[in-house]
Amino acid sequence: MDCKTTALILLLTLILANFSCAQNPSKKIDCAPSAKKILEQAPTEVVESPDGNKTLYIYRSPVSPAQPQAMVKYVVLSKNDCKELKRGEFFNGKIYWHDAKTLEYYSVPGMMPKDQTLDDLKQKIVLE
Fold first, then answer.
1. Is 0.85 surpassed by the pTM of this model?
2. Most buried of the four, 7, 35, 76, 122, by CB within 10 Å?
């Protein structure tokens, strides 16, 4: 084969390979409906894990005179299949990604003791 024929075959192969990939794009799954069902509310915050494989959905209840402490509910779902990896709830605090496999949260009691800081209240949740 001469160079032109080889180049033409290579070009056609690349075009066909590119076309087949374009016809089968990876499906993106929307896990928000699953999170809403688990949390029994629409999430108020959505945070992707550092590795991009998981999503943390958080619902924080409104604070009112009748309910002065916010209830924080959370669920972690796999982005590939919306599989539930962890869920929980606590009062008056915050939850966030510590790293790709660990969540960190704190729950503040009504009155914080003078000898404690938020760092004393932090706890970790290991996934997987």
1. no
2. 35
Q: Please say whether the beta carbons of 81 and 103 come within 8 A.
A: no
Residue whose token pair is 């075009």? 15
* DSSP H or E segment with residue 18: helix 3-23
Which amino acid is it at 100?
A: A
Angle in degrees, CA 125, 126, 128, rounded to 5: 140
62: amino acid identity, one letter? P
The C-alpha atoms of residue 109 and residue 31 are separated, in whole angstroms, by 32
Please name the residue that has the structure tokens 């029994």. 40
The ranges assigned to domains in the chain are 32-126
Q: What is the pLDDT of residues 11-38, one digit of tens each?
A: 556 565 555 444 444 566 899 999 999 9
C-alpha 38/C-alpha 11 separation (Å) is 50
